[in-house]
Q: What sequence folds into this?
């Protein structure tokens, strides 16, 4: 497959992602065939970002611009306009079911692993369309990353299952965890007759039958899972 790799760095597909999580998805799917630049870096606030002149240059040079959508990047359209960019805009959240935050859509959709899967598939399809010669590589990279997300989904569910129902609370300074609490994951199983009420209690939306937790496995490395869950809680967007 080495023949399909670009020989020089300047031959790579130029991608811009609006913030670091989208950039990470794009790097995992694009691998060596892409060059990914992010506008808002780690610890930056994508809600209130003020673009710098250098950002217009990044956008002008990009083949694809990957955005979250759902109203997160209100500052972007003026930047794209001023950059005179011909880049294709890819909305990574396309196809997710938005939850409401007051009157608006909650933009933090990537916080559920099921939604992150949709983001990755959207980015994969955009890369395949923009660079058909790399289709096989993008699909293989995406498959590998989606398998990682499946494992993450199982770890999160196992960690949550170990927390008593009444203590499943998230305290945060930023309202970013609504989708995490819903966990509408593509890999979760429908409820079975043997489900206990404890397993039905999380996530809180009872209409989402497919979001019911899978069978908990109390003997599967509880300490590691708990640490992992705390790490998840530390992620904010
Ligand atoms: Zn946020």
A:
């Amino acid at each position: 497959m080495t023949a399909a790799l670009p020989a020089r760095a300047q031959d790579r597909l130029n991608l811009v992602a609006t913030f670091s999580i989208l950039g990470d998805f794009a790097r995992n799917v694009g691998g060596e065939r892409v060059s990914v630049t992010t506008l808002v870096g780690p610890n930056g606030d994508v809600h209130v970002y003020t673009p710098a002149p250098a950002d217009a240059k990044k956008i002008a040079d990009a083949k694809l611009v990957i955005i979250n959508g759902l109203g997160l990047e209100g500052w972007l359209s003026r930047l794209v306009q001023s950059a005179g960019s011909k880049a294709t805009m890819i909305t990574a959240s396309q196809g997710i079911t938005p939850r409401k935050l007051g009157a608006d859509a909650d933009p933090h959709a990537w916080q559920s692993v099921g939604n992150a899967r949709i983001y990755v598939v959207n980015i994969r399809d955009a890369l395949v369309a923009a660079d058909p010669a790399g289709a096989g590589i993008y699909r293989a990279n995406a498959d590998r990353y989606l398998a990682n997300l499946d494992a993450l989904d199982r770890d999160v569910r196992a960690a949550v299952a170990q927390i008593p129902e009444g203590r499943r609370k998230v305290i945060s300074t930023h309202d970013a965890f609504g989708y995490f609490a819903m966990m509408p994951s593509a890999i979760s199983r429908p409820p079975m007759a043997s489900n206990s009420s404890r397993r039905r209690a999380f996530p809180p939306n009872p209409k989402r039958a497919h979001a019911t937790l899978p069978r908990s496995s109390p003997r599967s490395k509880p300490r590691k899972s708990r640490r992992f869950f705390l790490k998840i809680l530390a992620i904010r967007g």
The chain has eight helices and six strands. Residues 47, 108, 174, 176, 237 surround zinc ion (CB under 6 Å).
